[in-house]
Design goal:
2 copies of one chain form a homodimer. Helix content of chain A is 37%, strand content 31%. By secondary structure, chain A is of the alpha+beta class. The first copy, chain A, has a 6-stranded antiparallel β-sheet with strand order 1-2-4-5-6-3, covered by helices on one side. In chain A, helix 2 packs across helix 3 (38-48). Chain A binds chain B through residues 24, 54, 57-58, 60-62, 64-65, 67-68, 71, 77, 103-104, 106, 108-110, 113-114, 117-118, 127-139, 141, 185, and chain B through 23-24, 54, 57-58, 60-62, 64-65, 67-68, 71, 77, 103-104, 106, 108-110, 113-114, 117-118, 127-139, 141, 185. Chain A binds a DNA duplex (30 and 30 nucleotides) through helix 3.
DNA sequence: CTAGCTTTAGCATCAGGTACTAATAACAGA
DNA sequence: TCTGTTATTAGTACCTGATGCTAAAGCTAG
């Protein structure tokens, strides 16, 4: 039956690991995996300051909810602060840590692009599909915390095609520019 | 004291709303806010099929964990299936419901862009910052469920500048193309 | 062999319930 | 007004996954 017991220290380390990996595990299950009594597990948790199952689940639930809320907000890709439909618009995006390349702290291009695209689509007053873009330029690297101010102008419309320019500034400095060609749908497209 | 009771139906509707908003509320707290006994709350939950507090917390915790995991995976923006550093690479992205414009079911351009950008950066063997892009074209609209296959080729290098072309196909049809100009950093940049 | 740490056992208690029974209150229809 | 139905409340036994406490072993090193 070799009730293969482990030294206390080792068991407690393993305990921490297991609970971190699966916070949904009960003391009973733990006692079975370690071949010790439930009381021992409880003592271990006490010593290690690990809360009971229900508290663990509770905190997982609320922490994850926080994370999801912040991601939801991020999905907006910039807040539109001014909008004259069919003419122009302004959008502001506060960049955060999780938009950057870890190694360089530089904001990933697609966030900047996404802000510009969203704004360009917002100024067009119709169901639209983005079909062509040209002349994008990133002028300077953008770092977490920078506030991106994007201005869009509708330059020309031809039938169901819209030519929209977007300029994005960081601290008054131009950081990005893009010319978007948007095609409304609903009508035939080609 | 006007124990202001509410009609049953109304109370149950309000109950659903409250619990949806705050799944962490106990029957006792609910009974206080509605000025009814705990038993009434329990009966209501039974009729409405609402599980007990602990179950609610449990499901919030695990559902949100699932969502977070899928978002994590999404952050990769395409799976790189082939890569010859400094030369070429292939990335596959399965599009999903939450990448599209609700109204049109068409995949938002920045996901396609992000896949291409990520791939372009991956094929360059260095710390890179994206600084210039040109000649992007979206050829056809892409719908949720479409599988995007992006191929990148390094066309030219000049000093710390890399010219990378990315072609993305959906069902053998070209859907996107982009020429990226990447600049490695670490060295001086200008 | 004994002092000290570690482990186990047992029991009372708690929160937040389920499941069930039974009594009472409220109200609508004849 | 009485009556039948629905709604509400009360109360009990039981459940899970714990806490908190006391006490008894088990092991181990000096």
């Amino acid at each position: 039956m070799a009730r293969n017991t482990m030294p206390k220290k080792e068991r407690q380390q393993a305990l921490v690991d297991i609970i971190n990996k699966d916070p949904f595990i009960t003391d009973e299950e733990l006692s079975e995996t370690f071949n010790v009594s439930i009381q021992t597990i409880r003592l271990d948790r006490l010593e290690l300051g690990i809360p009971e199952l229900r508290e663990r689940i509770r905190s997982v639930a609320s922490e994850n909810q926080k994370k999801l809320r912040s991601l939801d907000a991020k999905e907006v890709i910039g807040e539109i602060v001014d909008l004259e439909l069919g003419v122009s618009g302004i959008s502001i995006l506060e960049t955060t840590e999780d938009m950057v390349f870890e190694r360089t702290q530089i904001v990933r291009g697609h966030y900047i692009f996404a802000q510009a695209e969203s704004l360009a689509i917002a100024v067009i007053d119709a169901k639209v599909a983005l079909t062509g873009v040209a002349n994008i330029k990133y002028k300077t690297p953008i770092f977490a915390g920078d506030k991106l101010v994007a201005k869009a102008k509708v330059m020309r419309t031809r039938g169901n095609k819209y030519f929209v320019w977007v300029f994005t500034k960081v601290r008054q400095q131009e950081a990005f520019r893009g010319k978007f060609i948007l095609v409304t749908i609903g009508e035939d497209r080609r």
